[in-house]
Amino acid sequence: MEQKKQKKIAAINDLTGFGRCALTVVIPVVSHMKLQCCPIPTSILSNHTGYSEYFFDDYTDRLPAFLAMWKRLGLTFDGIMSGFLGSKEQIGIVQEFVRTFRRQETVVVIDPVMGDHGTIAGTYTEEMCLEMRRLVMLADIITPNLTEACKLTDTPYREKGWKKKELREMAEKLCVMGPKKIVITGIPQGEFIANYMYQENESPRLIRTHKEGDERCGTGDLFASIIAADAVNGISFTESVKKASGFVKKCMIKSVEMGIDHKNGVCFEEILHLLK
Q: Phi, psi at residue 95, to the nearest 5°?
């Protein structure tokens, strides 16, 4: 009997010891979805930067040797995903990694983490934003939030009052850049939070879920992990976005129920068994 090959995702992100974000979210979620998660740590942090102080060790200068060894070993991946990148050099390294390791069947998912609520992160320069656009061009799927989608398309940001036509125009601009599947996340709509899903040659969808509690770190990593794993597993984009939206909501509800501190993200571990 022919053995079924287990698929692999290369996950490029930072490793943060406390706060449930980045690789500490990606690894368990991707693994739970029956894929081998192969992490590429861009930096090591004791806890995320939402705290007043933290230990930080930048791995930029070690990444080329790390990835050169993977190339020497002839490793291949069914998926590549990236999250927060802390410098222009790191974004360039990820671009090169995608060009080197991508095969015809490899799915590339980029979460262009740059900011939120209309503000680009203080660590991000304009040069880095331009490099992120170049990385987005290499993606099959992207998961920008509203702020990031506006920045990538030079669209003026506003918090509320987005019409479907405006969201579609922004998604179409992103699609022209390269990625054929786009979900713009975290769109405020009164008591709801919406995700706008767009894929080439199909009707776009606005998927809304009821807003549960205040914002928490790591929800974007959780969302992107589900999208990436589903894409590699051959799940339809529409089904995947619905699943990711619903699961993040369930995690938010559970975290409120358990009184989890906002800085400690969402307690997805409590209900990971519900994720199919």
A: -55, -45
